[in-house]
Amino acid sequence: MLVCKIKNTLVALLLLVTVIMALTLHSLLPPTPVAHYGVWQLHLTPVQNPIKLKAELKLAQESAKFKYDTHWAPAPIFKIGDLVMLS
Domain residues of the chain, as ranges? Predict the structure, then answer.
């Protein structure tokens, strides 16, 4: 019974020390730009040319699709009793 109480006390103490260390480390770090300025103030500029932006987005989408499709292959079809190798 005494061992169980000591164990519970040590676990609680370890948890407390962990929280104190995390809070101390957090207070020593400089704030991130998002935390300091807010998400809406991160030097966002209005779109100057929406037609050019749409064209660049379309090109990026087509490029991503092409790269994905070159490595894509259909999943193999297995039947009951087939042997497979697991890694």
Answer: 1-35
